[in-house]
Design a protein that fits this description.
Length: 226
Amino acid sequence: MPEQRTFGRRRSLPAKTTSAPKESPKAEPGPASESSGWGAMDKLAGQAGGDLYLKVSEDPTVIKIIDADPFDNYVAHWVEEIREGSKSVRCWGTSECPLCGIGDKPKKFAACFNVISFEDPEVPELRVWEAGVKIARQLRDIALDERRGPLDRADLYFTIARTQKAKATEYHLERIRARDLAEETGIEPLDEDEITQFVAERRTEPVKELLDSAEMGDLVKTLLDD
Ligand SMILES: [Zn+2]
């Protein structure tokens, strides 16, 4: 799902019609892809916008992690000049990154996991959780500890909550065994079939896509054209 952005200043920049090669590859009208059909419509519509990501609030949310390790890790630049759409732009992660090239440092790290969220205890839903550095390290320590891991152990659940202190947001992760889940949270653990169904739907592709050279070029140009 590409992120839509419009850039603040300099909207008079030549549009893609002039800067992009004329023959942009067209989508092949080939066999039904994972994004065609009504089934995909329902699935993707349900993931549109904010529903894709796990929302962590001050009330602890019960989650079940269904990946043994992050399916994606990235760092992102923060570009305040982007007016609409995500101001967070995935760093290319190499010395070629155009934003790094103009001296902008990536500010955010995310380790991405598929989780089943019990935000609505009646309707558990698949979400992408972008964990920051501290939580990602806690998760790694649990994952690699043979007594506590792996993360996707059938009997393992977590609660995640955040607190806001002055300018800093802190996250609190707690590990809960399935046998204690109902007593501690009021939520019944999923059975094996339910978990299997979520696992079949989990994401494996990066959710935060890279901007290509042309898009990065436009962005860098708006930043330098002050
Ligand atoms: Zn970069």
